[in-house]
Batch of 4 targets.
Target 1
Amino acid sequence: MEEAAGKDRTLRAEGLVNARDLGGLERVDGTLTPSGVLFRSDNVDRISPDGWQQVHEAGIRTVVDLRQPGERQKDTQKRPTWLTTINVDLDGLENTGFWADYWNNGLVGTAMYFVPHLNEMPERAGAAVSAIVNAPPGGVLFHCMGGRDRTGIIAMILLSAVNAGTEEIVDDYLETVRLGDTRAASDNRNNAESLLNELCERHGTTTEGAFRTALAGFDLPGFIKAAGLSESDRAALATWRGSVVETGVSPSGSEPPKGT
């Protein structure tokens, strides 16, 4: 179901400060991405019992956790029995050769690592995408710790797959940046966004510019092929689990299945 343009997409769940529906964004053909299908957020271990009730009321039934195993081991809260959780380690820290160029220098906190990561380890994001599009019925929420960059990579893929407009995709990423003070307060720390922007500037860009460059350089068909996504994965991705009726060519480069 489409939502009116400009509608607040915030997912209000007690404990989350950076959570929203990916629905309601304008696509290239003028239609909107469907609401109630895919959601992004910060760490769900912060959700209170009342917050989980709010998540349930939003129609979400599956969480795809993009964090590293060590991060998950620090979780302390019980999750409701109606929830399906799927763990996908997006980072792949065992690939030390790749991370040597992005971890200790802070670039892991910027979009400058997005496309290199997708090129080096496409199977990681491919596993996350496959988990999302093949989840049990109901809305799917994917998250990392802050809901900024790992979640940002997956959101970029999902929104590109249904031809969301460039400015809409950029603005969705920047919404997390705009929430910097709120996110920092929830972690009892200082807002690092200005420092991250300064880091980007030292590399000749900005926080926004780095993401725009990543989005412009993202080869969706190439990623789909490199990630080894199946035909059913491709169809589910192109239609957001059957919620989008495609009128053009699917991301796989073939005509979309009829009747989706």
Target 2
Amino acid sequence: MPNSYLAIPTFTEFSQILDPGCYHPLPDDWYVGIADVVSSTEAVAQGRYKAVNMAGAAVIAAISNTLGHSSYPFMFGGDGASFACAPDHIDKIRLALAATRRWVHENLELELRVALFSMAEIRAAGRDVQVARYAVSSAVSYAMFRGEGIHWAETQMKTHNDHHVASAPPGTQPDLNGLSCRWSPITASGNGSILSLIVFPLGNRPAFDAVVKDVLYLLDEDPRHAHPVGENGPLFRFPPAGLNLEAMANRPRGGSLFNARAKVFLTAALAFILDKTGWKLGAFDPAHYRKLTALNTDYRKFGDALFMTVNCNSQQADQLEQMLSQAEKANHIQYGLHRQKTAIMTCIVPSVVNDTHFHFLDGGEGGYTAAAAAYKAKRDARQQTPDAPPPPAATPVL
């Protein structure tokens, strides 16, 4: 059966995320999956940024190894993920999600919450899920979502448990092949900051679109569009900080964690040598791989809201925050923003000898989780102010 998602034309200008003509409604028989880490704010406060990101990326890895990489729409959310899929393999997907819940609990000591919703019930609730494909390179595109269906499903998951996927039995291991985290933290340039930013629309969509255009215009003053990763790619760290996490992800069912660590260590050592010397090994070209890593990084995306992890100088960051604050006071948007000095990357690499590898970027000291917490703190403060206007009906629930 032809894949209707892959039939959607791609676009290459990020500003086209605001063009309704780029989006296509999902079929009624498709499903939407939502996953998030419970109490992620507390985990981030404990410095467990990498584990939280690993849990979110694990969902995408498990589904990718079930459906095929690039063959379905998904979005990494820092402390979770969202995706959509055809009904053909829904039973296998449930098993993959259940196994991932168990793996996250046993290996990362986090609770992952996951749920599945049919498109028919999302539309019956007055929402929709429309998908576009933003091509970041000739080999990789990322899904963009609009229609408020993703946020509706997330809200339902957090307030009801009738769509939750139960955890698999103890010891169940999902297929997380390709999930890795070997790059060094990406440091903000000069006196700048890495900004984690989430901008939510309210009822006035033209006003929201105008704010997003202003944000993109400001960031486009930078030749790299505020991309935190240089065009030659990130730096390689050895031994990788995420060695244990990667070993746990790629340990065979029933296999030794020591052996898995040794394999990751030796593979990383070889990669480090090739990276530093520039030597090629068969079809693997380390310089090309690093450049594609920069291209294939999801530092900006759209999923019923604008999500960005960007590198800004101090003046840009101040201008951006002032612009957003004014727009929020005018009830055009709601936003959360968090400044930090580093970004971290979590990757899904099916093979190092082709270009279809994915790289998920988040702030290295709180990231999207902290940005969401900042938004919620402002929201709660407004609600406790006696003279504050009531929150708009479109206020998203995080």
Target 3
Amino acid sequence: MSCLKCLKYTMCVVNFIFFICGAAIFGLGTYLMTTSRFASLLPSLQAMNIANSLFIIGIIITCVSFLGFLGALKENRCLLISFFILLFLLMLAELAMACVLLVFEGEVDKFIEKDLKKGLNGSLTNRQQNKTTEDDWDTVHKTFQCCGIYNYTDWKTWVPDSCCKDDPCYKNVTTRYWPQGCYKKLKETFESNLLNTGIGVIVVCIIEVLGMCFSMTLFCHISRTGLQYK
């Protein structure tokens, strides 16, 4: 019985930690949505810019961890089974996404390259109308030290200051721009971190499986003994 109590409070502590992390991510996403102006890199996935992605991820983590925390604390079978089902659906979605990326790797690569061109053209149009406009492209330029999709010429005569190596930016000197395009740089960064990404996905899946096992163990025990431990 003491093992089950230990399991119960372990679930409470772990889910509480995830709840705090989810709330922090949710707050950051909300802050970015209200204070920043974003233009999606991928127009076909326009809703999935940095701010919206953090907002959605924060909501998911917060809701799921809250169900697990309250279900374990109150020994509520309905909440525990809801927690189990949500974790199961999340794991299925992650596995399905991983399979799609592996099977259709070439098609996904072409889609991203084509959509990046649309995103850059949309950003270029905004910059021509308003020279002070900043969006996700500036964040990518500064973070990965790149410019445009293939190089700075993608921006034509409207090369943003974020493409410059130095401050102040001497736009009449082409060597001041980052020479490498962001498409190649992003691809190289992803490939170089593929092992870390795979390890991260495996760790997340293990946590989800453990959460499902713990919740089902408590659910079955509560079903046998009533609404509380004896």
Target 4
Amino acid sequence: MSTDQRVAYSDEDLQEFKELILKKLEQATADYELLRAGASMASGNDVADTSPTFKSLQEGATILSRGEAGQQAMRLLKFIQGLQAALVRIEKKTYGICRETGKLIPKERLRAVPHTTLSIEAKLSEKK
């Protein structure tokens, strides 16, 4: 049977995706905690005895680094939320169904982007 004719993935397929998502969720959560800690941490290097110019440059670099870590943390948080939503769809047995076309999203796409809710076709037509 072609994947286009099926209306849902089998329980075995859903279990495979659930395991994949749980692994990605565990890694993403650990990465998020590291980034969040890095974004909020004060610099451990004391520059009290160095020149004021160097101190200003280092403080600027530290602020920039914290800002970048904060942005990465926000992107990661969005990814985590997408993975959590995918787990809910698995439980409801609606995982892998394109929200635009109603067709099954190919397994290859779901393995690459497990939190997606759009097929490639729907994603491309969304950009037009």
